[in-house]
Amino acid sequence: MSKRHLLGLSCLFAAFAGEAGASGFVNNGAAFEVMTPAAQAAYVEGLNDSANLIFVNDDLPTAIVKYARTRCLIEHKTTSVILAQEINNVYVVNKAMEKQPPIAVYIYVMTATCKDFINQERARLGLPPV
Fold first, then answer.
1. Sequence ranges of the domains in the chain
2. How far apart are the C-alpha atoms of 83 and 40, rounded to whole Å?
3. What beta strand segments (E) does 11-115 contain?
4. Using one digit for the tens of pLDDT, what is the confidence trace for 48-99?
5. Within a 10 A sphere around the Cβ of 114, how many other Cβ atoms?
6. Could you give the CA distance from residue 69 to residue 53 in angstroms, rounded to a whole number?
7. Which candidate in 15, 37, 72, 82 could, as Cys together with 114 as Cys, close a disulfide (CB 3.0–4.6 Å)?
8. Which of 64, 52, 72 is nearest to 112 (CA)?
9. CA distances to 6, 32, 47, 59, 79 from 41, in Å
10. Model pTM?
11. For residues 66 and 62, what is the distance between their CA atoms, to the nearest angstrom?
12. Sign of the C-alpha dihedral, residues 26, 31, 34, 37?
């Protein structure tokens, strides 16, 4: 393919990247808020499962956070419905978060909610608190 063709394709992709990339995805609060409560709960359940999967190549601090968040959810008896409601509440109360994707709000909520659990696990392994 010639440089001219590549340049033309690059311009075409650049022109449509914003539209095509966002279409059909939950990229912000507005997209999350229009989902039904059941859809939000299912979405958050998948988000949680993927965010807390411990990979063999995770560094120790990352693995600790994932483990601690899971322990926190279990001990607080947090369901996907409750977690979806908490994420929704952040979008409603904190309009500055509206442009953030649900995963960013999830991290925000979980860090605040589970900080004690995270620090307990870090201390158990000789790491300083966050």
1. 26-124
2. 9
3. none
4. 999 999 999 999 999 999 999 999 999 999 999 999 999 999 999 999 999 9
5. 22
6. 11
7. 72
8. 72
9. 43, 10, 10, 29, 8
10. 0.78
11. 6
12. positive
